[in-house]
Write a structure and sequence with these properties.
CATH architecture of the domain at 282-468: Up-down Bundle
Structural class: alpha+beta
Shape: globular
Largest sheet: 6 strands, mixed
Radius of gyration: 24 Å
CATH class of the domain at 282-468: Mainly Alpha
Bound molecules: iron/sulfur cluster, fe (iii) ion
Order of helices and strands: HEEHHEEHHHEEEEEEEEHHEEHHHHHHHH
CATH superfamily of the domain at 282-468: Butyryl-CoA Dehydrogenase, subunit A, domain 3
Number of helices: 16
Strand content: 5-15%
């Protein structure tokens, strides 16, 4: 396994085309916009390689028995599913932000299971190919990004009905040794600092959409692939000296990119679905079930830091003993632990798939993510309430260092004795960053928008069965009438 430094060294050997604010980045991995996200991903390597957190951070490969990072591991039991959630909470608490690696982890598991199903049904050889790819990923401890979301153009039209057929990634050329793909993927967490991109379809597809049913692995520096790194709330602050106005040296949210595939060649050994649209739906469903459960782990870890920061700020304000403030902190605890319980529950209720790995309970997993779309906003509101208006009006660090007004700002922003104004400002900035529009919208739409969960929830809730049960328990139709 690599440590964080080795991970960054391996990135620096790559030559990806990464654009940011109108320019191609010559040394993307040294750029201040990317550095915090790389630092966060590197922490996942350090925590696994250090040997002190093996129970959550590492696992035994079911491919060859080697000790590997849990981020390249197949969920081989309920215990693995639970440990994954524990790992996400742990790293979420260590870094206080998104550490980006879970999308690739869930993509690995989705591809493992669906390639197996496709081969069983159609006699293809995708699973063996994927197994080889995964072996290398485990052996070299590589970071992979999961790329599922297409731009989607006019959402009332199917992919092949769009005015521009490239609005969903699709196969534009088939050759004996592979395929050529074109299109884009958006909002791809951690893509810029991953070694590999795992491309997956975004929806189930009928036969006329077969060319859109493509799953494959593309190196981040493959010819024809460009990445455009997105902007975030407060991103210019990363380029200022020090990190006080950022509130954290870690990234805020996952460092998302738009991926542009301009006729990228994918050799057969990296191709894991090429037209089997009838299996694309289960790939999406499984990937999203795993990924939606995650949010009860990582967001709980982040909220641990947020809760601690809010409580500390209340102490500096001198309000921590106030019963109303304590009740608001209790409400945060309630929201966070409710969701963590859901993530653990969906893992505990997991079921084994034909390929051998285990899937979380989809109803509970989708409920977790649905809760996140509300709870993260509610937690944010409570932290804003306790922290006060400073979150939106605090002067810049440079003003506190000004020879003319810095001393006065120090005087007037003082809180409880024993705390510096710098501590107070750092806490405010962390809360600001972790409840910013970027963070909230990520919680709303990351791993699928709220409506996507509601569709699965109603489907999984099995209303016909529940109606039958209601009839039985209440005793409808006992007199022979149709109830
Ligand atoms: Fe992992 Fe959470 Fe970030 Fe998604 S939002 S990549 S689950 S840390
Ligand atoms: Fe996310």
């Amino acid at each position: 396994m690599m440590n964080g430094t080795q991970y960054v060294e391996t990135l620096k050997k790559l030559k990806p085309r990464i654009f940011y604010r109108g320019k191609r980045l010559e040394n993307p991995y040294d750029h201040p916009a990317l550095r915090p996200h790389i630092r966060t991903a590197a922490a996942t390597y350090d925590l696994a390689a250090g040997g002190q957190h093996d129970e959550v951070m590492t696992a035994t490969s079911n491919l060859d028995g080697a000790k590997i990072s849990r981020f390249t591991h197949l969920f081989w039991s309920v215990d693995d599913l639970i440990r994954k959630i524990a790992m996400l909470r742990f790293i979420g608490r260590e870094t206080g932000t998104c550490f980006q690696r879970c999308v690739g982890l869930d993509a690995i598991n989705a591809l493992w299971s669906v390639t197996y199903d496709v081969d069983q049904a159609k006699g293809t050889e995708y699973h063996q190919r994927f197994r080889k790819f995964l072996s290398r990923l485990q052996r070299e401890d590589l970071m992979s990004a999961g790329a599922m979301t297409d731009p989607k153009g006019d959402r009332s039209l199917a992919p092949w009905q769009q005015a521009d057929p490239d609005l969903y990634v699709h196969i534009v050329g088939r050759r004996p040794d592979g395929v050529v793909i074109r299109g884009a993927k958006t909002h791809i967490t951690g893509a810029a600092n991953s070694h590999e991109i795992l491309v997956m379809p975004t929806l189930g597809l009928p036969p006329e959409g077969a060319d859109y049913a493509v799953a494959c692995a593309v190196p981040v520096d493959a010819p024809g692939l460009s990445l455009v790194f997105g902007r975030q709330s407060n991103d210019e602050r990363k380029e200022e000296a020090g990190s006080i106005d950022c509130g954290t040296e870690w990234g805020v949210v996952g460092g998302e990119s738009t991926l542009l595939f301009e006729d990228v060649f994918v050799p057969n050994e990296r191709l894991f679905m090429a037209g089997e649209g009838d299996f694309a739906g289960s790939l999406v469903d499984r990937f999203s079930a795993w990924h939606r459960a995650n949010y009860g782990g990582c967001k709980a870890g982040n909220a641990d830091v947020l809760l601690g920061a809010t409580a500390l700020l209340a102490e500096i304000h001198g309000t921590i003993k106030n019963g109303i403030v304590r009740d608001k902190l209790t409400e945060i605890v309630h929201l966070v632990e409710t969701n963590f319980a859901g993530a653990i529950g969906s893992s505990a209720m997991g079921k084994r798939l034909p390929a051998g790995n285990w899937l979380v309970d989809p109803l509970l997993a989708n409920t977790v993510k649905q809760n996140v779309t509300r709870f993260v906003y509610q937690v944010g509101r409570l932290t804003h309430d306790i922290a006060g208006g400073l979150l939106s009006t605090l002067p810049a660090d440079a003003d506190f260092r000004s020879s003319e007004v810095g001393g006065l700002l120090e005087k007037y922003f003082a809180g409880k004795q024993g705390f510096s104004t710098e501590d107070k400002r750092k806490l405010c900035r962390y809360i600001e960053g972790m409840t910013s529009v970027s963070t909230l919208v990520e919680a709303l739409h990351g791993a699928g928008s709220p409506q996507a969960q509601r569709i699965v929830m109603l489907r999984q809730a099995d209303l016909p069965e529940k109606t039958r049960q209601a009839k039985k328990v209440i005793g409808l139709g006992k007199d022979g009438s149709q109830a």
